[in-house]
Specification:
four-stranded parallel beta sheet
Length: 232
């Protein structure tokens, strides 16, 4: 039987019509603001979905609301992001290593990047391809803009609390078969973060398999099925 679901997308500062706002760079600040914004919607059955960096930002509120506060969280969907149970994010670590190979101390800001490369982004593109592989380098070109730089700082600074109890809700990990940034093993490791049921779903696509020109239709069909079974 179909179930009515309200979708509440989260649009972070610096994106779309919030482009004039400062992008968030600190993980704890981002998690705190998300929890504050989402709290009014957690008095009814709900689920979280997060893609790439959004998967990390979805996991922390899922733990806060579902495990700590006992809110009626029914499901966590995480896509295209290595599980934090494996330690520091390997993609962010690889990008940092690339910057260091170019003579930078660590993660630069967008302004610092422009200054260092003096308006020659091809130098950074070449370095990303060389150090991370052709496919990864192509899909990481966004790290050169202000929002991409900020996102990378959040991912690099993400730290899972060591005493954190596992989630008690089902977790579904979603992976693009041709994703050059995240491995299937990295997605499977999300299983370590829940005491509930876990499923890994693999789609035909790359890191952005949820886009309309890739596997969005199949992804939406799966979400509808899981939500219909878990949000009654």
């Amino acid at each position: 039987m179909p179930v009515d679901v309200d979708v509440c997308p989260v649009q972070l500062p610096g994106r779309e019509n919030r482009w004039r706002e400062r992008p968030l760079e600190d993980c704890e600040e981002a998690v705190g603001l998300l929890a504050e914004a989402l709290a009014p919607y957690t008095d009814r059955p709900f689920a979280f979905f997060g893609h790439s960096m959004g998967a990390l930002l979805a996991h922390r509120p899922a733990h806060e609301f579902g495990t700590v506060r006992g809110a009626p969280l029914r499901h966590l969907f995480v896509a295209a992001c290595t599980s934090p149970s494996l330690g520091p994010n390997p993609l962010a670590a690889g990008v940092v290593a690339t910057y260091r190979a170019l003579g930078l101390a660590g993660l630069p800001s967008a302004a610092e990047l422009l200054d260092v490369f003096d308006g020659q982004p091809e130098r950074l593109r070449h370095a990303m391809r060389e150090h991370l592989g052709e496919g990864a380098g192509e899909q990481l070109l966004g790290v050169m803009d202000p929002v991409g730089c900020a996102d990378l700082r959040i991912v690099h600074g993400y730290a899972r609390p060591t005493a954190e109890a596992p989630l008690a809700v089902p977790v579904t990990a979603l992976h693009g078969r041709r994703d050059p940034l995240v491995t299937e093993e990295g997605m499977s490791a999300w299983q370590d973060l829940t005491a509930g049921t876990f499923r890994l779903e693999v789609f035909d696509g790359d890191h952005y398999f949820c886009h309309p020109d890739q596997a969005r239709a199949a992804l939406l069909a799966l979400l509808r099925t899981r939500l219909a079974g878990g949000l009654r």
